[in-house]
């Protein structure tokens, strides 16, 4: 089934881990009972690629290559050749992961997490959020406000369902996944404003979702990683409670598309350089906005931000973005922990059912957040 293609940016974990269509409003998946199927498994069948590693990624891990081969098999037209509405109908990395699991008899594990959907007010209207609550029976949990990937243009809560599920279960925290409004229907800075408004809503209403109002982190993948950091900056500048921690998975962090990783991974999949240019064109009102510190985080004032964890992938145009951001944060006196995973692509996070490195990254992210929460 065709779903929303995700960005640079997770299957909810491929970015994300990820999976569905362009409408980010409430879906049947918002309210699930006891066990929610997701994309992270303890074990995976041995996966062997059909062909040699691609020329653009000779070091690709075999399990990652199987996912990329499946994604290519759909024959979708490249996103830069499509309108945003058309692009949201393309298959996603999540579709590929789900089909690989079916074809190799890999069962979808049941996360012990309950989900519910909720509409919350933001400037200019309402947006939808999906709340993931661990089934561990506590009266109060830390909270993670999560922003999905998709270049600010494509993907939705379903495409990035695996990452929030994994984080909720592995961190034992409530996760609030935010369906910020997408471009080009909603140009910059709408997604950034929605992200901050959602964070403020969680700060003010944490107790209503079994959240601890003193322990609220922000997290995101790709475009969502950018939103997480930008939200923390705006919270600091607006004198709103600072997040407890930041998790940024292969974040968009600057505007130069001639960095080392952009050059090396110009033709990578599922995210390549032309796709990033397409995202920029669709989200920004003009190219001058690419220098705005909300987009180019490395140009922002980063002092006083909370402990930050940055995850990058070797086969990703945005690898340099994440590394540059880590360096800038450290220079600003921020506590930073960062790790790169070799042999995997953008959107590997959340593919723990089939990609071993993804499961490692998910555990690393959960451990870092638990440490920040004092757990």
Automatic annotation (TrEMBL):
The keyword Glycosyltransferase does not apply. The keyword Signal applies. InterPro entries: AB_hydrolase_3, AB_hydrolase_fold. GO terms for molecular function: sterol ester esterase activity; triacylglycerol lipase activity. This is Alpha/beta hydrolase. It comes from Mucilaginibacter pallidiroseus. GO terms for biological process: triglyceride catabolic process. Residues 144-349 form the Alpha/beta hydrolase fold-3 domain. Transmembrane segments: none annotated. Keywords: Hydrolase, Signal. Residues 1-19 form the signal peptide. GO terms for cellular component: cytosol.
